[in-house]
Amino acid sequence: MLDRLKTLYQLQVIDDQLDELEELRGDLPNTVKELTQKINNIKADLQEKQDKQQSSLEKRKENEEEIEKIRENQKKFKAQLFQVRNNKEYDALTKEIDHSDGNIQKLEEENAQLENLAGTLTVDIDELGPILFELEEELESKEADLKEIIKLNAKEEAVLTTSRKQFEGKIKGPDYTSYMKIRKAKKGIAVATIKRSACSGCHNIVPSQRQLEIRRNNKLFYCEHCGRILVSPEAAEINQ
Question: Are the CB atoms for 231 and 193 separated by under 8 Å?
Fold first, then answer.
């Protein structure tokens, strides 16, 4: 049981050191992540606007070609007006011409709307360009800073990570699950010692009888106030 307590305490010591290395990175990892997400969002928005702009241009071209076809047909209809033999034929042709005029008007109105849309999209695209450029420059700078910090501590972190894996492998599944659960809930500190009759994690007094039981090192005990695993000073000293 003593080895079990020693291993848990040593794992906490290693995690404390790894946490310190993580703190040296400050908010850089989150900043890099947020900048990357912003850049991806802007790129997606930019691509969407460019696609809409291209579709707008293609649609306007199609409409212009359709207008040209309609006008060519109108010329034929108008030429046929001079060859009609009765009012029925005349009415049919004029109706067709009027219908063609209506279609041309609709297509021209649609083209005007598409042109306005293309103009708006151009403005949006022009505005997003510099923003994207600035964010990419900032990301490049932050990534360089982060890589430098990681590089400076790479050897120490590698040694600690290897040691952690060794100690983790010695811990029973339920103990490790409990350790990680408490660690997550208590800002990284899952194992505490008794200092001046108090829990080193929350600083609440540990009853004398409980202190005696903990000093026997034959059972896992948890702080009644914060829920951290409590180990005796002797168990902690053995691992230092």
Answer: yes
